[in-house]
User: What shape does this take?
Amino acid sequence: MRIVRDGWKFILPLSLLAVVFFFLWRIGGLLFLVLASLILFFFRDPERKIPEGKDLILSPADGKVIDISEVRDESFLPSGRKVVRIFMSIFNVHVQRSPVKGKVEWVKYNPGKFMAAYAEKASESNESNLIGIKTDNGLNFGGQTVLVKQIAGSIARRICCWCKEGDNLNPGQRIGMIRFGSRVDVYLPQEIEIKVNKGDRVVGGETLLGKFHS
Assistant: This one.
């Protein structure tokens, strides 16, 4: 199992403490071992089988779809956009992937609060990172921008973005991670055909989230 490199700075010290405490206080050693195992599980980064198709929009994250709606009150976007909101529990893989093939137009980090990620106002109020990807997918909507918003939660206190302006992305390519429970919102053109429903479980880089009309 592949582990996110950033995770080793947590896993190795905890593993060392587990060894040390095992000889000093066995129960303490077991507790550190359990904690190290949980952190190892959290930072897992499994390979995914990326579907083929130029018109496909893939889920950027593992988790549960908690809302599908039209943009109404989010200041960074005009109306006429659809948004799919995906909540990630601490048990989900927390690596995010590009939903489409395209070029990163811009990346914008916004400091903010750390309220529960499933809260309605979390998208506007919480710490977040917005990635704009200009896609050439679809014959009718070539040049449209798909937005991926990484949102910190009440436990998640660090958003990691692994792409920068000008990067060319492939569908399913790793673009970032949010530590310890969080949410990802995906903003799509109004004309996109959504292929998931509220309550569905999705898998990053594999589940078909929507489709461009060719």
